[in-house]
Amino acid sequence: MVNKLKIVMMAIWMPWCLTMAAKDYAVTDFGAVADGTTLNTRTIQHAIDYIHRQGGGRLVFTPGKYLTGTIYLKSNVTLHLEGGATLLGSTNPWDYDKNPIVNWMSMIFAVRQHHVGITGKGTIDGQGFKTANNMVDYINRGLFEDPLKLGRPYEGNRPMNVYFRECEHVTIKDITLRDPASWNQTYDQCKDLCVDGITVDSKSYWNNDGIDIVDCDGVVLRNANIDAADDVFCFKSHSADHFCQNVVVENCVGRSSANGLKFGTVSRGGFRNFKVSNITIFDTYRSAITFAAVDGALIENIEVDGVRSINTGNVIFLRIGDRWSNGKQPTMRHIAIKNVYAEIPATKPDAGYNYEGPIEDLPRNISPASIVGLPDHKIQDVALQNIEIVSPGGGNPHYAFRGTTAKELDSIPEMRKAYPEFSQFKELPAWGLYLRHAEGITLDNVRFRAVRPDYRPALVADDVQGICLKGVSYEEPAAKGKKQVVLYKSTEKK
Fold it and tell me: Is the pTM of the predicted complex or chain greater than 0.90?
Protein backbone atom coordinates (compact mmCIF):
# COMPACT_ATOMS: atom_id res chain seq x y z
CA MET A 1 0.00 0.00 0.00
CA VAL A 2 1.24 3.49 -0.88
CA ASN A 3 0.45 4.94 2.55
CA LYS A 4 2.40 2.15 4.23
CA LEU A 5 5.39 2.21 1.94
CA LYS A 6 8.26 3.89 3.75
CA ILE A 7 11.36 4.65 1.76
CA VAL A 8 13.98 5.42 4.37
CA MET A 9 15.79 8.15 2.49
CA MET A 10 16.90 9.96 5.65
CA ALA A 11 19.58 7.28 5.86
CA ILE A 12 21.14 8.39 2.59
CA TRP A 13 24.44 10.16 2.99
CA MET A 14 24.58 13.02 0.52
CA PRO A 15 28.26 13.32 -0.43
CA TRP A 16 29.58 16.71 -1.40
CA CYS A 17 31.56 17.10 -4.55
CA LEU A 18 35.25 17.44 -3.97
CA THR A 19 36.59 20.97 -3.69
CA MET A 20 40.34 21.14 -3.38
CA ALA A 21 42.27 24.31 -2.65
CA ALA A 22 45.58 22.59 -3.33
CA LYS A 23 48.09 23.76 -5.89
CA ASP A 24 47.60 23.51 -9.67
CA TYR A 25 50.28 21.91 -11.84
CA ALA A 26 50.30 22.14 -15.64
CA VAL A 27 50.93 18.79 -17.29
CA THR A 28 52.93 20.54 -19.99
CA ASP A 29 55.43 21.64 -17.33
CA PHE A 30 56.31 17.96 -16.96
CA GLY A 31 56.92 17.66 -20.68
CA ALA A 32 53.56 16.41 -21.97
CA VAL A 33 52.96 17.15 -25.65
CA ALA A 34 49.41 17.92 -26.77
CA ASP A 35 49.76 16.98 -30.43
CA GLY A 36 47.56 13.85 -30.46
CA THR A 37 50.43 11.62 -31.64
CA THR A 38 53.11 11.72 -28.91
CA LEU A 39 52.48 9.01 -26.31
CA ASN A 40 52.42 10.77 -22.92
CA THR A 41 51.72 7.84 -20.59
CA ARG A 42 54.99 7.93 -18.61
CA THR A 43 54.98 11.73 -18.44
CA ILE A 44 51.42 11.94 -17.10
CA GLN A 45 52.09 9.16 -14.59
CA HIS A 46 55.24 10.90 -13.38
CA ALA A 47 53.25 14.12 -12.88
CA ILE A 48 50.53 12.31 -10.89
CA ASP A 49 53.14 10.60 -8.70
CA TYR A 50 54.93 13.89 -8.10
CA ILE A 51 51.76 15.76 -7.08
CA HIS A 52 50.78 12.88 -4.80
CA ARG A 53 54.19 13.08 -3.05
CA GLN A 54 53.73 16.83 -2.58
CA GLY A 55 50.50 16.24 -0.67
CA GLY A 56 48.05 16.70 -3.53
CA GLY A 57 46.73 19.14 -6.10
CA ARG A 58 45.28 19.38 -9.59
CA LEU A 59 47.05 18.20 -12.70
CA VAL A 60 45.78 20.65 -15.31
CA PHE A 61 45.46 19.82 -18.99
CA THR A 62 45.28 22.91 -21.17
CA PRO A 63 43.68 22.74 -24.67
CA GLY A 64 45.13 20.07 -26.93
CA LYS A 65 45.11 16.31 -27.42
CA TYR A 66 47.17 14.25 -24.97
CA LEU A 67 47.65 10.68 -26.20
CA THR A 68 48.00 8.14 -23.41
CA GLY A 69 47.75 4.52 -22.36
CA THR A 70 46.98 3.40 -18.81
CA ILE A 71 47.60 5.87 -16.00
CA TYR A 72 46.93 5.43 -12.27
CA LEU A 73 45.42 8.24 -10.25
CA LYS A 74 46.78 8.63 -6.71
CA SER A 75 45.29 9.99 -3.48
CA ASN A 76 44.65 13.75 -3.25
CA VAL A 77 45.17 14.23 -6.98
CA THR A 78 42.55 15.55 -9.39
CA LEU A 79 42.86 15.52 -13.16
CA HIS A 80 41.44 18.82 -14.42
CA LEU A 81 40.69 19.03 -18.14
CA GLU A 82 40.13 22.55 -19.37
CA GLY A 83 37.70 23.16 -22.20
CA GLY A 84 39.38 22.03 -25.42
CA ALA A 85 41.63 19.55 -23.63
CA THR A 86 41.30 15.87 -24.56
CA LEU A 87 42.83 12.82 -22.94
CA LEU A 88 43.08 10.64 -26.02
CA GLY A 89 43.30 6.90 -25.60
CA SER A 90 45.97 5.05 -27.53
CA THR A 91 44.62 2.74 -30.21
CA ASN A 92 47.35 0.19 -29.41
CA PRO A 93 45.96 -2.35 -26.88
CA TRP A 94 49.49 -3.06 -25.62
CA ASP A 95 49.54 0.46 -24.13
CA TYR A 96 46.95 -0.57 -21.51
CA ASP A 97 47.36 -2.45 -18.24
CA LYS A 98 45.02 -5.24 -17.24
CA ASN A 99 44.84 -4.52 -13.54
CA PRO A 100 45.22 -7.73 -11.50
CA ILE A 101 42.77 -6.61 -8.79
CA VAL A 102 39.83 -5.92 -11.12
CA ASN A 103 40.97 -8.02 -14.13
CA TRP A 104 39.99 -5.27 -16.59
CA MET A 105 41.80 -2.81 -18.83
CA SER A 106 41.28 0.94 -18.51
CA MET A 107 42.80 4.24 -19.61
CA ILE A 108 42.46 5.76 -16.12
CA PHE A 109 42.64 3.60 -13.00
CA ALA A 110 42.35 4.56 -9.35
CA VAL A 111 42.66 1.61 -6.96
CA ARG A 112 42.31 1.98 -3.18
CA GLN A 113 42.91 5.73 -3.24
CA HIS A 114 41.09 8.63 -1.57
CA HIS A 115 40.15 12.21 -2.46
CA VAL A 116 40.54 11.70 -6.20
CA GLY A 117 38.66 13.17 -9.11
CA ILE A 118 38.37 14.17 -12.75
CA THR A 119 36.91 17.62 -13.43
CA GLY A 120 36.61 20.33 -16.05
CA LYS A 121 34.98 20.94 -19.41
CA GLY A 122 37.42 18.75 -21.34
CA THR A 123 37.02 15.28 -22.86
CA ILE A 124 38.19 11.73 -22.31
CA ASP A 125 38.13 9.99 -25.70
CA GLY A 126 38.99 6.30 -25.71
CA GLN A 127 39.07 5.91 -29.52
CA GLY A 128 37.49 2.60 -28.64
CA PHE A 129 36.31 1.46 -32.05
CA LYS A 130 39.86 1.47 -33.42
CA THR A 131 41.34 0.00 -30.24
CA ALA A 132 38.83 -2.85 -30.06
CA ASN A 133 39.32 -3.75 -33.71
CA ASN A 134 43.09 -3.66 -33.27
CA MET A 135 42.65 -6.14 -30.41
CA VAL A 136 40.58 -8.37 -32.71
CA ASP A 137 43.48 -8.30 -35.17
CA TYR A 138 45.99 -9.29 -32.45
CA ILE A 139 43.74 -12.16 -31.37
CA ASN A 140 43.30 -13.42 -34.92
CA ARG A 141 47.07 -13.32 -35.39
CA GLY A 142 47.58 -15.37 -32.22
CA LEU A 143 49.31 -12.55 -30.34
CA PHE A 144 46.66 -12.29 -27.60
CA GLU A 145 44.64 -15.10 -26.04
CA ASP A 146 40.92 -14.43 -25.99
CA PRO A 147 37.79 -16.52 -26.73
CA LEU A 148 36.57 -13.84 -29.20
CA LYS A 149 32.93 -14.58 -28.42
CA LEU A 150 30.54 -13.40 -31.15
CA GLY A 151 33.53 -12.02 -33.02
CA ARG A 152 34.49 -9.54 -30.33
CA PRO A 153 36.99 -9.66 -27.45
CA TYR A 154 35.87 -10.28 -23.88
CA GLU A 155 34.90 -6.99 -22.20
CA GLY A 156 37.82 -7.12 -19.76
CA ASN A 157 40.27 -7.35 -22.67
CA ARG A 158 39.18 -4.00 -24.03
CA PRO A 159 40.00 -0.74 -22.20
CA MET A 160 37.36 1.28 -20.40
CA ASN A 161 37.86 5.00 -20.11
CA VAL A 162 37.71 5.08 -16.29
CA TYR A 163 37.80 2.39 -13.58
CA PHE A 164 37.88 3.36 -9.89
CA ARG A 165 38.01 0.53 -7.35
CA GLU A 166 37.70 0.80 -3.53
CA CYS A 167 38.23 4.56 -3.53
CA GLU A 168 36.81 7.09 -1.08
CA HIS A 169 35.71 10.68 -1.69
CA VAL A 170 35.53 10.62 -5.48
CA THR A 171 34.38 13.50 -7.67
CA ILE A 172 33.68 13.27 -11.40
CA LYS A 173 32.38 16.63 -12.59
CA ASP A 174 31.50 18.36 -15.87
CA ILE A 175 33.67 16.21 -18.14
CA THR A 176 32.71 14.53 -21.42
CA LEU A 177 33.49 10.85 -21.86
CA ARG A 178 33.29 9.24 -25.28
CA ASP A 179 34.07 6.15 -27.34
CA PRO A 180 35.38 3.53 -24.91
CA ALA A 181 36.35 0.10 -26.22
CA SER A 182 34.36 -1.59 -23.45
CA TRP A 183 32.21 -0.25 -20.63
CA ASN A 184 32.72 3.47 -20.30
CA GLN A 185 33.22 4.25 -16.59
CA THR A 186 33.02 1.96 -13.56
CA TYR A 187 33.02 2.89 -9.87
CA ASP A 188 33.41 -0.33 -7.89
CA GLN A 189 33.11 -0.58 -4.08
CA CYS A 190 33.70 3.16 -3.72
CA LYS A 191 32.45 5.32 -0.85
CA ASP A 192 31.29 8.92 -1.12
CA LEU A 193 31.01 9.23 -4.89
CA CYS A 194 29.70 12.34 -6.62
CA VAL A 195 29.17 12.34 -10.40
CA ASP A 196 27.77 15.68 -11.54
CA GLY A 197 27.18 17.34 -14.89
CA ILE A 198 28.86 14.78 -17.13
CA THR A 199 28.15 14.19 -20.83
CA VAL A 200 28.65 10.72 -22.28
CA ASP A 201 28.73 9.56 -25.91
CA SER A 202 29.33 5.83 -25.53
CA LYS A 203 28.15 4.02 -28.62
CA SER A 204 31.27 3.21 -30.62
CA TYR A 205 31.45 -0.53 -29.86
CA TRP A 206 29.72 -3.44 -28.12
CA ASN A 207 29.05 -3.31 -24.34
CA ASN A 208 29.40 0.48 -24.25
CA ASP A 209 27.54 1.15 -20.99
CA GLY A 210 27.05 4.76 -19.98
CA ILE A 211 27.98 4.49 -16.29
CA ASP A 212 28.35 1.43 -14.04
CA ILE A 213 28.17 1.89 -10.28
CA VAL A 214 29.04 -1.36 -8.53
CA ASP A 215 28.56 -2.04 -4.81
CA CYS A 216 29.13 1.62 -3.90
CA ASP A 217 27.95 3.29 -0.68
CA GLY A 218 26.97 6.97 -0.64
CA VAL A 219 26.43 8.10 -4.23
CA VAL A 220 25.05 11.19 -5.93
CA LEU A 221 24.58 10.99 -9.71
CA ARG A 222 23.01 14.15 -11.11
CA ASN A 223 22.72 16.33 -14.21
CA ALA A 224 24.10 13.61 -16.49
CA ASN A 225 23.34 13.34 -20.20
CA ILE A 226 24.26 9.90 -21.50
CA ASP A 227 23.93 8.28 -24.94
CA ALA A 228 25.00 4.64 -24.81
CA ALA A 229 25.00 1.51 -26.91
CA ASP A 230 24.40 -0.56 -23.78
CA ASP A 231 22.74 0.18 -20.40
CA VAL A 232 22.72 3.86 -19.44
CA PHE A 233 22.46 4.28 -15.64
CA CYS A 234 23.59 0.82 -14.58
CA PHE A 235 23.91 -0.25 -10.95
CA LYS A 236 25.48 -3.64 -10.30
CA SER A 237 26.35 -5.83 -7.34
CA HIS A 238 29.27 -8.09 -8.15
CA SER A 239 29.92 -9.29 -4.59
CA ALA A 240 27.51 -11.26 -2.40
CA ASP A 241 29.10 -9.47 0.57
CA HIS A 242 28.43 -5.91 -0.63
CA PHE A 243 25.54 -3.60 -1.49
CA CYS A 244 24.97 -0.71 -3.84
CA GLN A 245 23.26 1.56 -1.34
CA ASN A 246 22.41 5.07 -0.19
CA VAL A 247 22.13 6.49 -3.69
CA VAL A 248 20.55 9.63 -5.14
CA VAL A 249 19.98 9.96 -8.90
CA GLU A 250 18.44 13.20 -10.12
CA ASN A 251 17.96 15.34 -13.23
CA CYS A 252 19.44 12.88 -15.72
CA VAL A 253 18.74 12.13 -19.38
CA GLY A 254 19.61 8.87 -21.11
CA ARG A 255 19.31 6.97 -24.38
CA SER A 256 20.28 3.35 -24.87
CA SER A 257 20.18 0.38 -27.17
CA ALA A 258 19.60 -1.61 -23.99
CA ASN A 259 18.07 -0.27 -20.72
CA GLY A 260 17.71 3.13 -19.09
CA LEU A 261 17.80 2.85 -15.28
CA LYS A 262 18.91 -0.69 -14.44
CA PHE A 263 19.77 -2.71 -11.35
CA GLY A 264 21.79 -5.72 -12.52
CA THR A 265 22.21 -7.83 -14.44
CA VAL A 266 24.90 -9.04 -12.02
CA SER A 267 23.03 -8.86 -8.71
CA ARG A 268 24.79 -10.89 -6.03
CA GLY A 269 24.65 -8.61 -2.97
CA GLY A 270 21.92 -6.07 -3.45
CA PHE A 271 20.53 -2.56 -3.87
CA ARG A 272 18.89 -0.54 -1.12
CA ASN A 273 17.99 3.02 -0.16
CA PHE A 274 17.71 4.66 -3.59
CA LYS A 275 15.99 7.93 -4.41
CA VAL A 276 15.65 8.54 -8.15
CA SER A 277 13.95 11.68 -9.40
CA ASN A 278 13.38 13.56 -12.64
CA ILE A 279 14.87 11.31 -15.29
CA THR A 280 14.15 11.16 -19.02
CA ILE A 281 14.70 8.04 -21.12
CA PHE A 282 14.21 8.19 -24.89
CA ASP A 283 14.81 6.14 -28.08
CA THR A 284 15.71 3.20 -25.85
CA TYR A 285 15.47 -0.40 -27.01
CA ARG A 286 14.59 -2.19 -23.76
CA SER A 287 13.12 -0.90 -20.49
CA ALA A 288 13.17 2.59 -19.04
CA ILE A 289 13.26 0.97 -15.57
CA THR A 290 14.65 -2.54 -14.94
CA PHE A 291 15.21 -3.98 -11.47
CA ALA A 292 16.56 -7.53 -11.61
CA ALA A 293 17.33 -9.76 -8.64
CA VAL A 294 18.51 -12.89 -10.44
CA ASP A 295 21.71 -13.76 -8.55
CA GLY A 296 20.44 -13.78 -4.96
CA ALA A 297 20.25 -10.01 -4.49
CA LEU A 298 18.19 -8.08 -1.96
CA ILE A 299 16.47 -5.07 -3.58
CA GLU A 300 14.57 -2.88 -1.11
CA ASN A 301 13.63 0.68 -0.22
CA ILE A 302 13.67 2.12 -3.73
CA GLU A 303 11.77 5.24 -4.78
CA VAL A 304 11.56 6.42 -8.38
CA ASP A 305 9.71 9.72 -8.70
CA GLY A 306 9.37 11.51 -12.02
CA VAL A 307 10.14 9.57 -15.21
CA ARG A 308 9.48 10.60 -18.79
CA SER A 309 9.92 7.63 -21.12
CA ILE A 310 9.53 8.50 -24.81
CA ASN A 311 9.95 6.02 -27.67
CA THR A 312 11.12 3.30 -25.30
CA GLY A 313 10.44 -0.40 -25.92
CA ASN A 314 9.16 -1.00 -22.39
CA VAL A 315 8.60 1.18 -19.36
CA ILE A 316 8.81 -1.03 -16.23
CA PHE A 317 10.30 -4.50 -15.78
CA LEU A 318 10.75 -5.84 -12.25
CA ARG A 319 12.06 -9.39 -12.13
CA ILE A 320 13.15 -11.98 -9.59
CA GLY A 321 15.06 -14.92 -11.05
CA ASP A 322 17.39 -17.62 -9.80
CA ARG A 323 20.32 -17.62 -12.20
CA TRP A 324 23.49 -17.61 -10.05
CA SER A 325 21.94 -17.41 -6.58
CA ASN A 326 23.80 -20.45 -5.23
CA GLY A 327 21.06 -21.02 -2.68
CA LYS A 328 20.81 -17.38 -1.59
CA GLN A 329 17.29 -15.96 -1.25
CA PRO A 330 16.52 -13.34 -3.94
CA THR A 331 14.28 -10.61 -2.54
CA MET A 332 12.57 -7.53 -3.97
CA ARG A 333 10.35 -5.41 -1.72
CA HIS A 334 9.31 -1.88 -0.78
CA ILE A 335 9.42 -0.29 -4.23
CA ALA A 336 7.62 2.95 -5.18
CA ILE A 337 7.44 4.16 -8.78
CA LYS A 338 5.41 7.31 -9.32
CA ASN A 339 4.79 10.26 -11.60
CA VAL A 340 5.65 8.47 -14.83
CA TYR A 341 4.62 9.24 -18.39
CA ALA A 342 5.58 6.68 -21.02
CA GLU A 343 5.03 6.19 -24.75
CA ILE A 344 5.77 2.75 -26.17
CA PRO A 345 6.32 2.61 -29.95
CA ALA A 346 5.06 -0.04 -32.35
CA THR A 347 8.44 -0.09 -34.11
CA LYS A 348 12.08 -0.58 -33.04
CA PRO A 349 12.92 2.48 -30.90
CA ASP A 350 16.70 2.47 -31.46
CA ALA A 351 16.66 1.87 -35.21
CA GLY A 352 19.50 3.61 -37.03
CA TYR A 353 21.99 3.84 -34.15
CA ASN A 354 25.53 2.46 -34.52
CA TYR A 355 24.91 -0.55 -32.31
CA GLU A 356 21.24 -1.45 -32.08
CA GLY A 357 19.59 -3.92 -29.76
CA PRO A 358 19.10 -7.36 -31.35
CA ILE A 359 16.21 -8.22 -33.60
CA GLU A 360 13.70 -10.10 -31.43
CA ASP A 361 12.66 -13.67 -32.12
CA LEU A 362 9.20 -13.37 -33.61
CA PRO A 363 6.25 -13.69 -33.62
CA ARG A 364 5.62 -11.52 -30.55
CA ASN A 365 3.19 -8.67 -30.05
CA ILE A 366 4.33 -5.59 -28.11
CA SER A 367 5.12 -6.59 -24.52
CA PRO A 368 3.43 -4.93 -21.53
CA ALA A 369 5.09 -3.51 -18.44
CA SER A 370 5.62 -6.41 -16.07
CA ILE A 371 6.36 -7.33 -12.47
CA VAL A 372 7.32 -11.00 -12.36
CA GLY A 373 8.64 -12.98 -9.41
CA LEU A 374 8.90 -16.73 -8.86
CA PRO A 375 6.46 -19.02 -7.04
CA ASP A 376 8.95 -19.40 -4.15
CA HIS A 377 10.37 -15.86 -4.32
CA LYS A 378 7.60 -13.31 -4.70
CA ILE A 379 8.01 -9.60 -5.32
CA GLN A 380 6.55 -7.73 -2.35
CA ASP A 381 5.05 -4.33 -1.65
CA VAL A 382 5.25 -2.38 -4.91
CA ALA A 383 3.34 0.88 -5.39
CA LEU A 384 2.69 2.39 -8.83
CA GLN A 385 1.21 5.87 -8.48
CA ASN A 386 0.31 8.65 -10.94
CA ILE A 387 1.39 6.76 -14.04
CA GLU A 388 0.27 7.00 -17.66
CA ILE A 389 1.39 4.40 -20.18
CA VAL A 390 0.55 4.85 -23.84
CA SER A 391 0.82 1.50 -25.62
CA PRO A 392 0.64 1.07 -29.40
CA GLY A 393 -1.86 -1.75 -28.94
CA GLY A 394 -2.46 -3.67 -32.13
CA GLY A 395 -1.94 -7.10 -30.64
CA ASN A 396 -3.12 -9.61 -33.23
CA PRO A 397 -4.18 -13.13 -32.13
CA HIS A 398 -3.54 -14.45 -35.65
CA TYR A 399 0.08 -13.28 -35.45
CA ALA A 400 0.92 -14.32 -31.87
CA PHE A 401 -1.48 -15.48 -29.21
CA ARG A 402 -1.54 -15.95 -25.46
CA GLY A 403 -4.95 -16.36 -23.90
CA THR A 404 -6.22 -15.96 -20.34
CA THR A 405 -7.66 -19.37 -19.61
CA ALA A 406 -6.11 -21.28 -16.71
CA LYS A 407 -4.29 -23.59 -19.10
CA GLU A 408 -2.95 -20.71 -21.19
CA LEU A 409 -1.76 -18.69 -18.20
CA ASP A 410 -0.15 -21.73 -16.60
CA SER A 411 1.72 -22.40 -19.85
CA ILE A 412 3.79 -19.21 -19.50
CA PRO A 413 7.28 -20.46 -18.59
CA GLU A 414 8.91 -19.43 -15.32
CA MET A 415 12.37 -19.04 -16.93
CA ARG A 416 13.96 -18.76 -13.52
CA LYS A 417 17.53 -19.08 -14.84
CA ALA A 418 17.16 -16.94 -17.95
CA TYR A 419 18.82 -13.61 -18.61
CA PRO A 420 16.28 -11.01 -17.41
CA GLU A 421 14.68 -8.81 -20.05
CA PHE A 422 11.11 -7.71 -20.65
CA SER A 423 10.65 -9.78 -23.81
CA GLN A 424 12.02 -13.04 -22.41
CA PHE A 425 8.57 -14.65 -22.13
CA LYS A 426 7.74 -13.75 -25.72
CA GLU A 427 3.96 -13.39 -25.95
CA LEU A 428 2.28 -12.17 -22.73
CA PRO A 429 -1.49 -12.02 -22.16
CA ALA A 430 -1.88 -8.27 -21.41
CA TRP A 431 -1.23 -5.09 -23.39
CA GLY A 432 -0.71 -2.78 -20.40
CA LEU A 433 0.62 -4.60 -17.30
CA TYR A 434 1.37 -8.23 -16.47
CA LEU A 435 1.80 -9.28 -12.83
CA ARG A 436 2.91 -12.69 -11.62
CA HIS A 437 4.04 -14.14 -8.27
CA ALA A 438 3.74 -10.99 -6.18
CA GLU A 439 2.21 -9.70 -2.94
CA GLY A 440 0.92 -6.27 -2.02
CA ILE A 441 0.84 -4.55 -5.41
CA THR A 442 -0.90 -1.15 -5.44
CA LEU A 443 -1.96 0.79 -8.53
CA ASP A 444 -3.11 4.29 -7.62
CA ASN A 445 -4.19 6.71 -10.37
CA VAL A 446 -2.75 4.64 -13.20
CA ARG A 447 -3.95 5.20 -16.75
CA PHE A 448 -3.45 2.68 -19.55
CA ARG A 449 -4.06 3.91 -23.11
CA ALA A 450 -3.89 1.78 -26.24
CA VAL A 451 -3.56 3.57 -29.57
CA ARG A 452 -5.07 0.66 -31.54
CA PRO A 453 -7.39 -2.19 -30.57
CA ASP A 454 -5.69 -5.18 -28.97
CA TYR A 455 -7.08 -8.67 -28.48
CA ARG A 456 -5.58 -8.84 -24.96
CA PRO A 457 -6.94 -7.29 -21.76
CA ALA A 458 -5.05 -4.33 -20.29
CA LEU A 459 -4.06 -6.01 -17.02
CA VAL A 460 -3.48 -9.61 -16.03
CA ALA A 461 -2.55 -10.70 -12.50
CA ASP A 462 -1.47 -14.30 -11.95
CA ASP A 463 -0.75 -15.44 -8.39
CA VAL A 464 -0.87 -11.93 -6.95
CA GLN A 465 -2.13 -11.64 -3.40
CA GLY A 466 -3.46 -8.32 -2.15
CA ILE A 467 -3.59 -6.34 -5.39
CA CYS A 468 -5.18 -2.92 -4.85
CA LEU A 469 -6.58 -0.97 -7.81
CA LYS A 470 -7.50 2.65 -7.05
CA GLY A 471 -8.41 5.09 -9.79
CA VAL A 472 -7.14 2.83 -12.56
CA SER A 473 -8.45 3.50 -16.07
CA TYR A 474 -8.23 1.64 -19.36
CA GLU A 475 -8.68 3.26 -22.77
CA GLU A 476 -8.73 1.21 -25.94
CA PRO A 477 -10.42 1.99 -29.27
CA ALA A 478 -13.61 0.02 -29.99
CA ALA A 479 -13.37 -1.80 -26.64
CA LYS A 480 -16.68 -0.85 -25.12
CA GLY A 481 -17.74 -3.54 -22.66
CA LYS A 482 -14.44 -5.43 -22.94
CA LYS A 483 -13.12 -7.00 -19.76
CA GLN A 484 -9.82 -5.24 -19.18
CA VAL A 485 -8.73 -6.90 -15.90
CA VAL A 486 -8.11 -10.62 -15.43
CA LEU A 487 -7.29 -11.91 -11.95
CA TYR A 488 -6.10 -15.52 -11.85
CA LYS A 489 -5.14 -17.20 -8.57
CA SER A 490 -5.14 -13.66 -7.20
CA THR A 491 -6.92 -11.69 -4.51
CA GLU A 492 -7.95 -8.04 -4.75
CA LYS A 493 -7.76 -5.72 -1.77
CA LYS A 494 -10.41 -3.00 -1.76
Answer: yes
